[in-house]
Amino acid sequence: MVFIGAGQGFAFAPLTSFGIIGAPAADAGAASGLVNTFHQVGTCLGLGIAVAAAATVPTGGPAAEHLAAQVTAALTTGSVLLLLALVITAALILPADLAGRRAGKTRSTVPAP
Fold first, then answer.
1. For a disulfide at 77, which of 21, 53, 54, 82, Cβ 3.0-4.6 Å?
2. pLDDT tens figures, 96-110
3. Is 59 part of a structural domain of the chain?
4. Total number of domains in the chain
């Protein structure tokens, strides 16, 4: 529970900040609400997928082995989803960030007329 609390504390606050960075001051509350909604939806969706993955483990054998197989399936699915999210984030955000940085550099090097 300590690791979960620390992880959420270190992750959700920066994610919320990054989610509202470009929003105008008048829309900051709505943007924050939207970010928090997606936090909640993502949590529920991730838990649902992990439970579905654990339910695919065939029954049989001792209960401890069955539970271990279910936990393994759920954690493996979570790890795959995390890797998929990282790849999608890198593919969608990094090119736009690099383009923005290049545009910023070219503007600063061009003298004003």
1. 53
2. 777 778 877 654 444
3. yes
4. 1
